[in-house]
Amino acid sequence: MEKYIIMGGNPLSGSVRISGAKNAVLPILAASLLSSGVCVIKDVPRLRDVHVMKEVLEFLGCTVEWSGSTMKIDASKVNSIEISDFLMRKMRASNLVMGPLLTKFRSAKLSFPGGCAIGSRPMDLHLKGLSAMGAIIEEKFGFIEAIAKDGYLKGAEICLDFPSVGATENIMMAATLARGETIISNAAKEPEIVDLQRFLNNMGAQISGAGTDIITIKGVDELSATEHTVIPDRIEAGTLMVAASITKSNIKIENVQAKHMEAVISKLREIGIKITEEESGLRVIGMEDLKAVDIKTMPYPGFPTDMQPQMMALLSIAKGTSIISENIFENRFKHVDELRRMGADIKVEGRVAIIKGKEKNGLSGTFVNASDLRAGAALVIAGLAAEDATIIDSIHHIDRGYENFEQKLRGLGAKIIRVAETQRGLEK
Ligand code: EPZ
After folding, report:
1. CA angle, 18 as apex, 6 and 263 as ends, to 5°?
2. pLDDT category, 286, cuts 50, 70, 90?
3. Which atom of ligand 1 is nearest to the CA of 374?
4. Among 60, 167, 189, 289, which residue carries the largest CB count within 10 Å?
């Protein structure tokens, strides 16, 4: 497997442009199934997860053209309603095609999405919502089969037990072609859901309320193709801001929407990082003294769980003891053991991590392994500040969510290269 080799200790400088948001483009690609024409999506990041969603759409019979950062999806010849186990296991977010298939083609069949490194990640909230709309759902032989009982879905009032992002998106998409009005309460409020509403309404849907906890969808007869530019990736932006913070750098982040990042910006400022809004972006200046802080991950607009590992790497060299509570996923501390190998002083008790910042002789480079996407990003961040070389294995996890990651970091002056497994000389 490919690895990163990072020589730490280099301050970063210059500017970097943020790519389109992975967690916005995935539901939008799934939603393109709802039209019978050719949707054109711009600012699509070249990520492994987007390649998988393209495979899913092609498996269903779509024709997908992807050049540069523009993707054209022709959904006029969809001829299947089933997603194979192989594809589902590649990426849980493949389950986002369930709502569109069910409401447009009256049925959907997908293998039960496996858990992943950060948790079991069930779909019960998705299925409860779809069955409230009249879907008959059967789970057997590891597959979930859903059929619109009367040949169509009906509007319903659905209250989510938890503001699940995926469940909100699947139910929203299913409701666009249902008969009647659907109201989702306790809906997730992420910016990616607002972007999905914008895309669907441009296709002719009648949705309001995305970004609040009550979303109303009036069913229509059909949706047409449209063109859409994806919002910037707030988690990539946050990750690069933390990279600048830990290396005490001064960089400019371009193509970023600060209003999507209030919790992250506020926490970084509390730590002592200078963040100012400039023409077309954010200026981030890492300061000498980093202050320990407490973080609780929460649904949006609270502190995002997808930024938790990266912040833990930063806090491992802050002054004082920080406490991080992970309230979204049951098992999102896989990066702790790897950070410990680099010298971090972290103790985990259930869903709480206690980080004793090492102000002096911070982190030291060594061999570490990326267990999942954001854990991998945290190890890159730690490697940028660590003494000597850090070798990170299994970086295919990082490729799922960061476009041209090493190129962007090298463009800022970081010493990072990607090497193939077989390349000798990795032994220190
Ligand atoms: C989305 O995942 C994101 N992925 C995740 O980003 C992100 O961490 C997560 O939302 C939370 O913000 C995409 O958008 C593609 P959830 P999703 O449904 O939709 C439980 C990344 O790093 N739950 O909001 O799967 C679930 O187990 C990824 O980019 C149920 O119990 O997240 C979890 O504990 C990682 N039943 C919590 O809710 C359900 O039916 C949040 O899950 C659904 C979810």
Report:
1. 95
2. very high
3. 22
4. 167
